[in-house]
Design brief:
Order of helices and strands: HHHHHHH
Structural class: mainly alpha
Distance between the termini: 44 Å
Shape: globular
Length: 117
């Protein structure tokens, strides 16, 4: 097998364009990936970074974050994705499964939990 590492330098505008082209599940997965990376930052970590984003942001930045936060549903927060779903998304993210395969597996585990619960 041949392996090659390519480093891409994207501007915030380019990354935003890619993000905007994602569907809602991909966008949610994007934030989950950011969280997995940032939650273990040393010191104040993600909390400090969040503060700096708000402090440094424009009106558009604040409007985007405020709109996103306004849709938080406490019941959704109480029911995080199952371990199976999280693992399937990690496998998909590493391109070992297609999106359709990952979605099918997640649906299978959801139905299995419903049948058992």
């Amino acid at each position: 097998m041949v392996s090659k590492t390519i480093e891409l330098k994207l501007t915030p505008s380019e990354l935003a364009t890619l993000f905007a082209e994602m569907d809602c599940e991909q966008q949610a997965w994007f934030f989950a990936c950011v969280w997995r990376i940032a939650k273990d930052w040393p010191g104040a970590g993600w909390c400090q970074q969040s503060y700096e984003i708000i402090r440094s942001g424009s009106v558009d930045t604040l409007s985007a974050i405020e709109t996103l936060a306004s849709h938080l549903d406490s019941t959704k927060l109480a029911e995080p994705a199952s371990e199976q779903e999280q693992l399937i998304r990690i496998i998909e993210d590493n391109q070992l499964l297609s999106r359709d395969q990952a979605d099918a597996l997640i649906e299978y585990y959801r139905r299995l939990r419903e049948d058992q619960g």
